[in-house]
Write a structure and sequence with these properties.
This protein has 189 residues and is of the alpha/beta class. The chain has one domain: 3-Layer(aba) Sandwich (Rossmann fold). It has 7 helices and 9 strands. It has a 5-stranded parallel beta sheet, sandwiched between helices. It has a 4-stranded mixed beta sheet with strand order 4-3-6-5, with helices on both faces. The model has no long low-confidence stretch (mean pLDDT 92).
């Protein structure tokens, strides 16, 4: 491969982007997941260096000062997420294409930085009520945090038109097939 590509999946929380990305990784062996860095607390089932690079707020801010991120965002007050440049280079050096699962602003920043080398896919729920139901069914947050995520999701849905393509996740099996077709076309193109 002469030049690696980046497939960006962004969505409001609860739209299904992580489920779709995991499916694509299982189906397409030329894709490798870019592990994001975050300052959020690790959930019980998560592994540092596999699901995320869990960093302290101080370490994250130091890496910002060192220009170590391809993109980063303060998603909520004191809560940062970002894509490390060394992670992008690691995957490309392995001769693979990158797939990322990032927030909406991070996805747009990666697309801006990598241009035609990147495909930016916006995953969206069929409606905001479905999104709220999915978030509530997770049972991972307090009511206040849940309401904050729902409000943020409403704002993020406004960014859809800035992405290369929108993928509606109304039925997960259909979303899987649509995502496979998008990625295969982009990588082979």
């Amino acid at each position: 491969m002469s030049q690696g590509k980046i497939v960006i999946f962004s969505a409001p929380s609860g739209a299904g982007k992580t489920t779709i990305v995991r499916h694509l990784l299982a189906k397409n062996k030329c894709l490798t997941f870019s592990i994001s860095a975050t300052t959020r607390s690790k959930r019980p089932n998560e592994v540092d260096g596999k699901d995320y690079y869990f960093l302290s707020k101080e370490t994250f801010i130091e890496k910002i000062k060192q220009n170590a991120f391809a993109e980063y965002e303060q998603v909520y007050e004191g809560l940062f997420y970002g894509t490390l440049k060394e992670e992008v280079n690691r995957i490309w050096n392995e001769g693979k294409h990158i797939i990322v699962d990032v927030d909406v602003k991070g996805g747009l920043n990666l697309k801006k930085q990598y241009g035609d080398q990147a495909l930016a896919v916006f995953v969206k729920p069929p409606d905001i009520q479905t999104l709220e139901t999915r978030l509530r069914n997770r049972n991972t947050e307090s009511e206040d945090k849940l309401l904050e995520r729902i409000a943020k999701a409403s704002e993020e849905l406004q960014f859809e038109k800035q992405f290369d393509v929108a993928l509606v996740n109304d039925n997960i099996e259909t979303a899987f097939k649509d995502a496979e077709a998008l990625v295969d076309k982009f990588i082979s193109g």
